Amino acid sequence: MTRALLLVLALSCAGAGHGHDAGIGDTGGGQDAPVDTDLGRPPWSRDWDAAPAVLLLDAVKDLWVVGDVHGDFERLLALMAAAGLVDKTSTPAQAVWKAGAATVVFVGDLIDKWPHGLDVIAFVQSLSASAAEAGGRVVVVMGNHEARFLAWPDDPVVEDFKKELVAALLDPVEVASGKAGPGQFLRNLPIAARVGDTFIVHAGNTKGRTLDALVAEIKAGVDAAGFGAPVLLADDSILETPLNPRPWWELPSYDPESVLRVWAKALGAERIVQGHDPGKVHFSDGKVRADGELYQRFGRIFLVDTGMSRGIPNGTRGALLHLHRDEASGKLTAVGVDADGRTWPLWSGT
Prior knowledge:
globular; 14 strands; alpha/beta
């Protein structure tokens, strides 16, 4: 890959889709944005030191990635228990971690579609505490449903979660503002995470930005326009880009594997893991990802949304991605694990 092509790839896609930017949550750069007069700053302000835009973690021997849960706590628990990550007796408020020093990352969209989003949130919070006691770690990155709820609690897209909150006697606006329920937890979620050389973000499409550029754009966008900022929720953003009619890395006149390699490298990574879309995908070389299939391409992009929630049409009971690094050889293997505990190889490399 020449330096010239790298530059073309980065610039052509960093500028793509600008026509969508003003359509979702754009407040005109924050000029007329509401201000919390008690604090002298917009009410969505975030302490980026305490809650980084992109969480950077050291490499681990065992990295697990969980796709979109969408409110289905029962299926989530069954899946993680089948993989040996948690005890099957775990409850939302008292999760029992069994994965030792492993790191587990959820790709966002914990809520909506099925009516137990609050249980899912409580579970990942209790699981995080249990994991820390054992030397492990649990990370949740933000999905488009969390961002939409925080930006617009009345958005029809998040109506299921709104109803769930009301049934629990929680005011959705108060939760979204961080003043009640799990609001502060949701508002402080990282937008993405890099664990060693694996970059995890809900909808994958970084447009070739460097890590520094992506972080700067997230911080500036959210500071100006809140969680409805175009960098998060425009049609071609890191939380919203669909995989159809074509995957975001299949650019005209460019080799798809080269695009993925260059864009991952810009983030300091070797591969990108994303959720967001569980549906069938047709690739330019004729290959097809089936509905709900845990899938990878070239060892550079891993699709982990398997539609595990019962609220997803044509979904599945779920599957997990397990990335294991052999300490002696340095070889990385990617394995799928389903709700019956069955495993199958996805990819292996360095």
